[in-house]
Amino acid sequence: MQHAVIFPILLPLLTAALLLLPPLQASLTKRRWLSGLGLFLLLLSALFGLWQSGAGVQTFYLLGNWPAPFGIVLLQDKVSALFVLLSTVLACCCWLYSVAGEDERGAYFQPLLQFLLMGIHGAFLTADLFNLFVFFEVLLISSYGLLLHGGGKGRTKAALHYVLLNLLGSAVFLLALALLYAMLGSLNMQDMAQRISQLGPQQALIVKAAAGLLLVVFGLKAAILPLHFWLPAAYANASPAVAAMFAVMTKVGVYCVLRVFGSLFASNAGELAGFGQDLLWFAGLATMVLAAIGVIAAQNLKKLVAYLVLVSVGSLIAVLSLGSTAAIAAMLYYSLHSTLMAGALFLLADLIAAQRGTVQDRLVSGRPLQQAWLLGVLFFIAALAVVGMPPLSGFVAKIWLLQAATESQHRIALWSVLLLCSLMVLIAVSRAGSTLFWRVNQQQVSGNRAQPVQWSAVVLLLACSPLLVVFGNPVMQFCLEAAMQLQLLPNVRATGGL
Amino acid sequence: MELVIAIVIGVLTSCGVLLVLRAHTFAVVLGLTLLSYAVNLFIFASGGLTAGKGAVLGQTDIYADPLPQALVLTAIVIGFAMTAFLVILAIRARAELGNDHVDGDSGSRQHPDKESRL
User: Which residues of chain B make contact with A234, given a CB cutoff of 8 A?
Assistant: First the structure.
């Protein structure tokens, strides 16, 4: 199974290519089953990757068997295996939700979903910065298509902004890559980490400029404060399964920040050690505060959830910038929790909106819901998890985030901002819930009943939250080991581990 | 040669940024295209500017760095695809939103003199 590393990239590619062939184009049912089969195999390969990396081995996969710094290298370690599994689980639930009828609204939903997964997994697995750019473009062009899925004015407008911003981001990314290549002569991350430590002061200045440009690009993908404007409109306007899948896309940005700034410019990077940490710290805190205000001010449920995604991005970035092993481990655990819960909430928001007639998901009093009990209980569980109430994973994750900062000099700032934001989220979510489910008028119930596959997709995502608590100890151990592995990476290379 | 390339990249970039900051999709598309030309030249220059060196092994004793050439080829292809997508999206936005303003509103119509410049 030496080729298992590349399966998470190849499987979606093959499935998507098959889905585009004429015999399958004719039949919606066949396309759904094939896409589901592809996702099932992908889930198996992601689990296998997790098991393989669990033994503590970093697997380097040389594409085309070119020797290490010259060819493209894929790296499967604990962090990348964990994120691949996360996006696969999310994609399975989105697929389950979409087969209830959402994928009929455009011809290419299933292939685009597979191409998106290919790009995401490539971005997680690659250890080469230019290859990262290529996989970014793969995931972006599929996300453009998915964002437009279903059509409509709001979507077109949001997509135009999203596409323009990301094209600019790509240009900046290429500038940074060219600068880095000119200074370091390599784009392989392990090789770069070694060369960065030997830079002279003049060259280090230019590499700093390139690192700043990279920070802008990843900040745009992750939607960190000054670059976050596109996110609420894009996520709130996307169709539900797409919005749920996009919950992992901001994590791709956070993951790249983690790889590049947590590992490449880590403590042994000579003059560049710790570059960007202060900036990330303040940007993270500011994102959190602004997003929490956005959550309170949101006029409809989808926008509220989009701002919740931003809150989680802010806390992830702020904690990441602390840089200690415990902080990065806590951040990994929190990103698992927040991605799955955001996905569940996007799906739930659509189910709720479908039963409220013309008021849709706006937070005003409307007609009573047809399945008020079912959706109410699901919303209650999701709200508890996302606010961070015991006994669900949000509580464990937030406690761990707070605990990770105890030894840092920033702890007072982090504690107060994180707790204050949690309070604001609590107020906003409970207000939203009571408006949606209790402030009802006398109109007749109507609208579409949630189909079993739809609400079971939500249930599956929500079930991950108690699972993350029940299996808390092994998951946390895994996160801790993953964080340690990430920070030791340059040393492994120096001793010839490649 | 360095100076010429630097000036060309600088002029292309500034024109691109200027056009991107316009409020109409056509100008923005042109701006992004200029910007990607500038970026492509920049990548090409990142391997060092040399004249008369071979790119194929075995033809000469001194070689130009082949990697930036491969990178720039990839970047050009991706840039073309993205620009094509953007043009289609801009046309669709023009049809659905009724105007070619990037925000989709016709608020800028109140200043016809400003608009006529582009």
Answer: none
Q: Which residues of A touch B102 (CB under 8 A)?
A: 160-161, 164
Q: Which of B24, B72, B78, B91 to mutate to test the interface with A (most CBs of A within 10 A)?
A: B78
CA-nearest of A343, A360, A257, A258 to A308 is: A343
User: For A46-50, A125-129, A438-442, which range has the lowest pLDDT when averaged over its residues?
Assistant: A438-442
Q: How many residues does chain B have?
A: 118
pLDDT confidence of residue B107:
56
Confidence (pLDDT) at B117: 45
pLDDT tens sequence across A392-446:
999 999 999 998 888 888 889 999 999 999 999 999 999 999 998 888 887 787 7
Q: Which residues contact A491 (CB under 8 A, 6 or more apart)?
A: A268
* Number of helices followed by number of strands (H, E) in chain B: 4, 0
Q: How far apart are CA A126 and CA A75, in angstroms?
A: 6
Domain limits, chain A:
4-494
Going from N- to C-terminal start, the domains of chain B cover 2-49+63-105
ipTM value of the model?
0.88
- The secondary structure element, H or E, covering residue A175 is helix A153-184
pLDDT score recorded for residue B118: 45
pLDDT at B16 over 70: yes
Mean pLDDT across chain A: 89
Closest residue to A137, CB basis, from B36, B78, B92: B78
> A206 in contact with B at a CB cutoff of 8 Å?
no
In angstroms, rounded to a whole number, what is the distance separating the alpha carbons of residues A335 and A338? 5
Give yes or no for a contact between B94 and B18, defined as CB atoms under 8 angstroms apart: no
Handedness of CA A457, A458, A462, A463 (dihedral sign): negative
Using CB atoms within 10 Å of the CB of residue A201, give its burial: 0 to 12 exposed, 13 to 18 middle, 19+ buried. Answer: exposed
Between A142-146, A320-324, A440-444, the lowest mean confidence (pLDDT) is in A440-444
The whole-angstrom distance between B61's CA and the closest CA on chain A is 20
Q: Cα B20 from chain centroid? A: 10
d(CA A77, CA A89): 18
Residue B46 to residue A160, Cβ atoms within 8 A: no
pLDDT in tens, A326-378: 999 999 999 999 999 999 999 999 999 988 888 888 888 888 888 888 999 99
CB A308 within 8 A of CB A295: yes
Q: Which of B18, B67, B83 to mutate to test the interface with A (most CBs of A within 10 A)?
A: B67
Cβ–Cβ under 8 Å, residues A196 and A269: yes
Using CB atoms, which residue from A144, A156, A174 is nearest to B43? A174
Question: Which CATH number describes the domain made up of B2-49+63-105?
Answer: 1.10.287.3510
Q: Give the per-residue pLDDT at A234.
A: 92
- From the CA of A67, how many Å to the nearest CA of chain B? 15
